[in-house]
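Tokens as discussed.
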């Protein structure tokens, strides 16, 4: 252990996305290759001597306790747990949640010493995995609010690969059989016969961890919400969501020493007539079982919306993935973005 193929695969995956900045400590981790990476895992992260590192992924993560702070993490999947190696700046990012982290060592001011905190979610504590629309993100849930993490991969391939690896590792777990009779069908039933309401598509793994995928209703709800924001201009039947993608909106920082730009996470939705930007809550929905009250904000909050017919040009950067796109719209004075311009000019 481990095989040459696994070492090569983990080494290839150990690359920080170029558009995201991380601390020196995580840059050190990203510089490790081959056996050095495996030795680093066993020497500094692994909690049990005989656990095996199976998968490595770099991703932005959100915690249920700090839903407004998106932080870069190196996600390590082993045969015992999921480890989130976090940027050390995250400890100070949200003062209201200071008790969420053990800050015993956070007073190290020595510049040559770089601290990272590691959040551990044991596989035995794992209860469900919710996969987001079009595999752009997934939420891992344990038994309490401290054990809910969303990985914003913004990449269906990374999401799919991690879910496959997680299922494979869960298959190795020896769990005690549940006292209630096990369903004959491998897949759980689609919905409650009492309400007739379509539930999300569930797959119950042999380890009794639920993998929950969105169904067609979720797209329907999103289309309805978009139509509502369009002030009812469009017939809901003809409204098609062509694209749903988690992206960043680029805001240039004025007056900075370097020509820097800040990236604001946004959900981009393209229909046949409009382009929308939403602030989306990726961590609170669907509500966890222990939640006593609904989240403080809606799942989707409209930030901006433009008609495709007002689109003047699209500028594309020449850098490699991820691609930067600039949408230039005609500037119409005193024009409400959502105003109805489809009425006959000579009509009533």
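Sequence:
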């Amino acid at each position: 252990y481990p095989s040459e193929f696994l070492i090569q695969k983990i080494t290839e995956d150990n690359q920080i996305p170029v558009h995201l900045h991380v601390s020196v400590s995580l840059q050190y981790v990203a510089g490790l290759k081959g056996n050095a990476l495996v030795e680093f895992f066993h020497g500094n992260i692994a909690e049990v001597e005989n656990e095996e590192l199976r998968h490595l992924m770099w991703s932005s993560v959100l915690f249920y306790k700090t839903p407004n702070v998106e932080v870069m993490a190196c996600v390590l999947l082993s045969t015992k747990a999921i480890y989130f190696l976090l940027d050390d700046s995250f400890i100070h990012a949200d003062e209201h949640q200071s008790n969420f982290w053990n800050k015993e060592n956070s007073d190290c001011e020595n510049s040559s010493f770089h601290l990272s905190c590691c959040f551990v979610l044991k596989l035995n504590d794992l209860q469900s995995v919710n996969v987001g629309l079009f595999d752009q993100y997934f939420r891992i849930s344990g038994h309490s609010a401290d054990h809910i993490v969303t990985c914003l991969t913004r990449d269906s391939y990374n999401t799919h690969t991690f879910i496959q690896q997680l299922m494979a590792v869960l298959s190795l777990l020896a769990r005690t059989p549940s006292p209630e009779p096990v369903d004959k069908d491998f897949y759980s039933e689609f919905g409650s016969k009492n309400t007739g309401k379509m539930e999300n598509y569930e797959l119950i793994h042999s380890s009794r961890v639920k993998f929950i995928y969105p169904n067609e209703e979720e797209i329907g709800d999103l289309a309805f919400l978009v139509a509502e924001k369009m002030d009812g201009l469009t017939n809901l039947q003809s409204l098609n969501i062509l694209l749903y993608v988690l992206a960043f909106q680029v805001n240039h920082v004025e007056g900075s020493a370097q020509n820097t730009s800040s990236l604001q996470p946004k959900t981009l939705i393209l229909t046949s007539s409009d382009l929308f930007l939403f602030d989306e809550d990726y961590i609170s929905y669907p509500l966890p079982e222990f939640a006593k009250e609904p989240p403080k904000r809606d799942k989707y909050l409209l930030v901006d919306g433009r008609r495709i017919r007002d689109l003047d040009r699209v500028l594309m950067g020449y850098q490699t993935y991820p691609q930067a796109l600039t949408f230039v719209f005609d500037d119409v004075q005193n024009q409400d973005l959502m105003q109805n311009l489809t009425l006959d000019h000579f009509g009533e």
